[in-house]
Design goal:
Its EC number is 3.2.1.2. One of its GO terms (molecular function) is beta-amylase activity. There is one protein chain. Strands 1-4-5-8-9-10-11-12 form an eight-stranded parallel beta barrel, surrounded by four helices. The radius of gyration is 23 Å and the shape is globular. It is of the alpha/beta class.
């Protein structure tokens, strides 16, 4: 838990953790809320089945626990003594649009091209019966080792069988440490996975998913988020918690032989062969260095602002962007095949891509932590628009985190600005005309965080002229009675209920939360 809070909030996280504990005790002292589930909306009108029909605002989804499916492929049916069907009924009554579930590569494809979808089919049937929508995340990364992870679901064993003889299928740092959380995009087009390229592995997974779940597209499944990197985010694993603490600059992760070769090829093609190498250790520091301690990232005279720095950072970021383009192209061929009406699900669901909220050092000139993560974003350069142009090409939604965060909760010496970063993402998504959806970065129950999400939502709606696609709340509480008791909701559950209603009817000019 200390590591969780330290990643996003630094030392102020200790204060926030104490605050959340007191808030939870306060909620328990309140006892059960007097709000019965009468299925009425914010205006007092009847709501069919607990939904919020024709609401003009933003639909709310809730992330399911990461371990909703067990290691042996069974859907978890009971949480804190409550049956999952009962829990789904409570979510429906409270007015959420649906849930989000991770579909783990390591659980589904335990053997090459053999897929076990049974627990997820079962979940779709339950969601259909509950009249709830489902956001599915095709999670090609390891579960475990990131903020909030209380699980360990590695990549399939057959991937590690390949890695025994070729560890370069994974990202590596300059010391040769391989990160087995996600496959390096250096092998996107290399047939090293038992005869398949990484993109072919993803495409085969998409085809099996399509054939298995086609009957649920649109009526149950509303979004298919494609995991494109560590933690399901389109980024390099530059801040691994086993090596990094908040708010270090992180390290570049391009030292596997495939990416090193691609870097040299790019330098050769440009006639600058001597630049075909990543920055040297003496220049960039280590995972936990500050920008000022490095020659590369320091504000004034830093190598990031030289011709070599521009060449390398462009290449590093473009490798990330090309990975997104390759995988999204494969997804489009599978899900939106205009030449075959049976395989064209255009308009039935959205493809989505998650971008990480790397907000520390955002107020510096170099934005060091974003650079090592693969976002070539500095004080003088918008690094997100090139990514969003690729998402627009594939009509993909951008999903962005840290919507709940405020600058005044961050340590001043880390030069953080989650608010400015979210603002940049919102403006860039609008400028590139792509759909925008949001998430919170860490679990919370406090009203101020709900209000911050609503403020971002209103800002988007005023500028864009229509609501965000969705907000997904991380994560349904465990134990579940933090929100729900028999025939009533708790104090904290009431606050979430009020948030859902406020977001559904938010008309942008109001900043009031009913009941908050």
């Amino acid at each position: 838990m200390s590591r969780l809070w330290n990643k996003r909030f630094g030392w102020t996280g200790v204060v926030m953790a104490v605050f959340m504990g007191l808030l939870l005790l306060h909620s328990l002292s309140k006892g059960h809320s007097t709000i019965p589930f009468s299925n009425r909306d914010a205006a007092g009108s009847p709501m069919k089945g607990g939904s919020i029909p024709n609401a003009p605002g933003v639909p709310i989804y809730v992330m399911m626990p990461l371990t909703s499916v067990s290691d042996d492929g069974q859907l978890k049916k009971e949480y804190s003594g409550r049956n999952i069907s009962w829990i789904l009924e409570q979510w429906k009554k409270i007015g959420v649009e649906g849930l989000m579930v991770d579909i783990w590569f390591g659980l589904v494809e335990k053997e090459p091209q053999q897929y076990d979808w049974k627990p997820y089919i079962e979940l779709c049937e339950m969601m259909k019966s509950a009249n709830l929508k489902l956001q599915t995340v095709l999670s090609f990364h390891r579960c475990g080792g990131n903020v909030g992870d209380q699980c360990y679901i590695p990549l399939p064993k057959w991937i590690f069988a390949v890695a025994e003889n070729n560890s370069d299928i994974f990202f590596k740092d300059r010391d040769g440490n391989a990160d087995d959380e996600y496959l390096s995009w250096g092998i996107d087009e290399e047939p090293v996975l038992m005869g398949r390229t990484a993109v072919q592995v993803y495409r085969d997974f998409f085809v099996s998913f399509r054939e298995t779940f086609r009957q649920y597209f649109g009526n149950v499944i509303s979004q298919v988020q494609i995991g494109l990197g560590p933690a399901g985010e389109l980024r390099y694993p530059s801040y691994q918690l086993s090596k990094w603490t908040f708010c270090g600059v992180g390290e570049f992760q391009c030292f596997d032989k495939y990416l090193l070769r691609r870097l040299q090829q790019e330098a050769d093609a440009r006639g600058i062969s001597e630049w075909g190498h990543p920055p040297y250790a003496k220049d960039v520091g280590f995972y936990n260095s500050t920008p000022a301690e490095t020659l590369f990232f320091r504000d004034d005279g830093g190598m990031w602002n030289t011709r070599y720095g521009d060449f390398f950072l462009n290449w590093y970021s473009n490798e990330l962007i090309q990975h997104a383009d390759r995988v999204l192209t494969a997804a489009g061929q599978v899900f939106f095949d205009r030449s075959n009406p049976n395989n064209d699900f255009t308009g039935r669901f959205h493809i989505a891509v998650k971008v990480a909220g790397v907000h520390w050092h955002f107020r510096s000139k170099a934005h060091a932590s974003e650079l090592t993560a693969g976002y070539y974003n500095t004080r003088y350069r918008n690094g997100y628009s090139p990514i969003f142009r690729v998402l627009k090409k594939h009509e993909a939604t951008v999903v962005f985190t840290c919507m709940e965060m405020k600058d005044n909760n961050q340590p001043t010496d880390c030069h953080c600005s989650p608010e400015d970063l979210v603002g940049l993402i919102v403006r860039s998504s609008i400028a590139n005309n792509i759909s925008f959806a949001g998430e919170n970065a860490v679990s919370f129950y406090d009203v101020e965080s709900y209000r911050q999400i609503s403020a971002v939502s209103r800002s988007y709606a005023v500028t864009k002229g229509k609501p965000m696609e969705a907000v997904t709340y991380l994560r349904w509480p465990e134990p579940i009675d933090i929100f729900f008791q028999e025939n009533a909701i708790s104090y904290l559950g009431q606050k979430f209920y009020d948030f859902v209603r406020s977001m559904a009817y938010d008309q942008a000019e109001s900043i009031d939360f009913p009941g908050l």
